[in-house]
């Protein structure tokens, strides 16, 4: 087995191939440059929305669509309290494939998020955009629609933030021009938001339980 592993290692030692360590070193250096104040502000927006019983609608394209679905799962299940405290409500607009394709086919791909928001969005709900470029047409229209309907808009972007940065009340821009690196950092940011919000929900649940015990319920 050792000989086989040695051979496998040698077979991949080719001039010009980048190393995995180099990739993660770039990630580590970039992590020190993330806009932590903006990330914390987004966590505050989400926590307040959940305190008020509002819904967060998250959306993006490609890898960002997968991140939107992952965030929805983390928030709805991972941040859910065990007791009677109010649960987070998060909806990923990327998950209803029949509805997305219907709007794309009949009205245009740029409408797939905006039209869903017109069905569900209430004032002071949160529209959460994920876009590496910051300039995806359907994401931008979704944000504009959300603003017109009285929602709070937040997002994560890359490069220089694109138009998404200007359409968000709070936007965390990953300072990189590399798509894979931006997507990795977006995913890490979403996990950090999930952890922060989970802590907030748990603290709120403790308050609810304490109040219930005090009232003899």
Task: Describe the structure in your own words.
There is one protein chain. The protein has 217 residues and is α/β, with parallel strands linked by helices. It has a single domain, classed as Glucose-6-phosphate isomerase like protein, domain 1 (Rossmann fold), CATH 3.40.50. Helix content is 57%, strand content 11%. It has nine helices and five strands, in the order αααβαβααβαβαβα. It has helices at 2-11, 20-31, 36-51, 63-78, 97-106, 114-120, 137-148, 164-167, 179-214; strands at 56-60, 90-92, 126-131, 152-157, 170-173. A five-stranded parallel β-sheet has the order 2-1-3-4-5, sandwiched between helices. The longest helix is centred in the last third of the chain and has 36 residues, at 179-214. The radius of gyration is 20 Å and the shape is globular.
Number of strands: 5
Total tally of structural domains: 1
CATH level 4 superfamily: Glucose-6-phosphate isomerase like protein, domain 1
- CATH names the topology as Rossmann fold
Rg calc: 20 Å
- Which second-level CATH architecture applies? 3-Layer(aba) Sandwich
In helices, the fraction of residues equals: 55-70%
Q: Give the DSSP E fraction (strand runs of 2 or more residues).
A: 5-15%
Largest sheet: 5 strands, parallel
Q: Please report the number of helical segments.
A: 9
What is the N-to-C succession of helices and strands?
HHHEHEHHEHEHEH
Strand order of the largest sheet: 2-1-3-4-5
Residue-averaged pLDDT, rounded?
Answer: 89
Catalogue the unreliable spans: none
**CATH class group:** Alpha Beta
